[in-house]
What does this fold into?
Amino acid sequence: MSHVLIVEDEPVIRSALRKLLERHDHSVVEANSVEQARSHNLHDFDLIISDLRLPGEPGTELIQQARPTPVLIMTSYASLRSAVDAMKLGAVDYIAKPFDHDEMIMAVDRILQVRVLRRGHDALRADLAQRYPVGNMVAQSAAMQQLVQQLDRIADSDSTVLIFGESGTGKELLARTLHDRSERNRGPMVSVHCAAMASDELEHQLFGVEDGQGRASLVEAADGGTLFIDEIDELSSSAQGRLLQLLENQMVQRIGVSTEKRRIDTRVIAASHRDLRLLVKEGRFRKDLYYRLQVVQLPLPPLRERGEDIQLLAESLLERICLRLNVKTAGFNSEARDAIEQYPWPGNVRELENAIERALILADGQEISVELLGIDASVMPPRTLHDPNEELSLEDYFTRFVVDNQDHMTETELARKLGISRKCLWERRQRLSIPRSRNSATGT
It folds into this structure.
């Protein structure tokens, strides 16, 4: 039963409305003025229905005082002006007097249904915020808690952000969280994956081509929101120059004969798994662009450095994938949990997610074992066997993994373990000068 407050100075109208609502199973309290309404706790009600014109203060005075309790305004002056003014002040809706009984009940039911849904949505958001403070990412470890603190400080800033971390760590999810927490969250978030397109095609789609058809670029599509550029080191020199222009003066010029420049209001978040400082030293990335990008830097730790997050993340992914695939499971057995904790996950969260999905499909409702996860302890030693004082760069870690395992793994298996595509594996081999071993395993 819903609890409704009626604020109306005309006794006949007030009584008729009370009887109407009570016939539809609503509990009703009456008041004849804003002052009398304030004698009650306005937050105890599910809905307040108030006349606009009342002795003393107008009914709209209750809107802010009762928030978040919705206020439905009644007015004898069924003009558009009075309705618009009430809505601007935050009224949930308005209804003209004399009102039709069916119309009133429909309006009340609609408002109360939305309120119930909103309460459920708010409760769900609060629960998710507590469990996953970084979007859908588990963040219990010290490394991730430090990241959360940084997010809280920079979310509402328009400063350019550079996210760096290994493949599969969740850089786009982190960018999405930044966008959702910012004041730009009502605008679009446009994601550009530079490694997925050829250089010329990437530049054309990113900045547009003046071909007479007026096709908007991805940069223009992000106007009023956020532009996320993943693997930014893949941009050509020409594209880097155009991006620098956007960052410096918020202007973009389409490729072609036109000299027209368009003003774009977008926040740029860039990401890379490579050390851009080294690329700058090698002359493969513009120094001025690098300094424009790294106003705020967010290092996203690899999964092997996230300690207690690993088990929590595995359980969270298991629950999520079960819902998506509509399957049931008995969960991980103890050996699988130990293996999940010890395995270094070179492909990070993406590799863990793929391993769990594959295991769920094969498990057929039974417990998930190490074998079903595809974790082979002989492929790579557990993290505890690594020298804790040894600090490997992302490039060194990738190179070591490939060199140590290419003799007994195919390119497809290497790519799957690293959480990347075969094409990406081949490109990184070329870039890092990692030769194929003569004894390399064959197969696709």
Summary: The chain has four domains: 2-123, 153-300, 303-388, 392-444. Residues 275 and 345 are 20 Å apart (CA to CA). Residues 379-392 have pLDDT under 50 and may be disordered.
